[in-house]
Amino acid sequence: MKKQILAVAACLMVASHAQAFEWSDDTISYWYGPYFRMPGTVSPNHPNGNNIGMNNIEFTHTDGFKYGTNFFDALLLMSNRQDPANSTGHQPQGAFEGWFVYRNDLSFNKIFNTQAFTFGPFSDIGFNSGFNWDAKNNYYASGEFAFRFGPSFHINVPVGYWQISPGAYKEMNNDGFNGPTNFHWTYNIESSWNIPFAVGPVPLSLQGYLNVIGPKGNDFKQTTKTEVLFHPKIMVDVGQLVWGKKNWIEVGVGWEYWYHKFGANNSLGGAIQSTPFVEATLHF
Description:
Blueprint: H1 2-16, E1 23-36, E2 52-65, E3 68-79, E4 96-107, H2 108-111, E5 122-136, E6 145-155, E7 161-175, E8 179-182, E9 186-199, E10 202-213, E11 218-219, E12 222-223, E13 227-237, H3 238-243, E14 249-259, E15 272-283
Antiparallel strand pairs: 1-2, 1-15, 2-3, 3-4, 4-5, 5-6, 6-7, 7-8, 7-9, 9-10, 10-13, 11-12, 13-14, 14-15
C-alpha cells in the first residue's frame, strides 16, 4: 500500500504543475537490441547468459515549470523466448516487463530568484528526487519499488543540457523464489545529457544516461555489487534534415552496457549486459 500511495503522490505532484508548464516535450519511441541479458537466465551453450532480443516501446514526458523540471518515463520491454514468461506451457513466450520512472528536479536559481548558483562549470544547482517502479512476468517476478534524492548539478554546455545528481537510494523488490526483499540504503549517481551538434548538413544529438547504484546488502544468499548502467546514443533529427521540421522525428543507434545488472555477482550468468540498439522517436 505504501508503494501505491507514494506513486500516486508523485503523479499528483506532476498533475499539480500541469497548468504551469513553461514548456513540455512528449515522445514515443521504439528501440530494439539483440544482446540483452538477465541474471540467472543461462543455458548450456550460453553459461554467461542467454542473448535476449528485446523490442521496446517507450513513452516520455518532460516539462519545465516555475521552479524546475519534471521527467516521467514508461517503458515496455518485450523479450524473445530466451527470456521466457512464467508458466507459458510447452510453447514458451517471451517475458514482458514494465518500467516507470519519475524525477523532479528543483532549480535553486529559480526558487531563490538569483544567479548565485551559476558559477564555474555549473549553470545551476538544485535538488533531484523521484522513484522507479517495475514489474515483470518471468520466473523471478521482480516487483521493484525504489526512490532516491540528492543534489543536482547542471553542467554548463554550449547547447543542450548535461545534469549530474549524486544521492541516496533505497530499493524494495520481489524474488519469485524467496519472496520480498528490503534492501539497505546506498549511494546512487545519476547523469543524463542531450547535446546537439552537426556534421555538415546533418543535425545530430548525443543523448543518454548513466546510473550507478552502490551495494545494497544481500539478495538473500548473494551479496549485491555496485551496478553501472550506461546508455549513450547518437540520434539524427530526420524531421529537420528531410522536412525542415526540427525536433519531430529522430532515428539513431546506441549501446547499452550494464555491469552487475541489478547488483548481481559476475558468478551468476547474465550479470553483464552489452548490446547495441537502434531507435526511432516521434515528438508530439
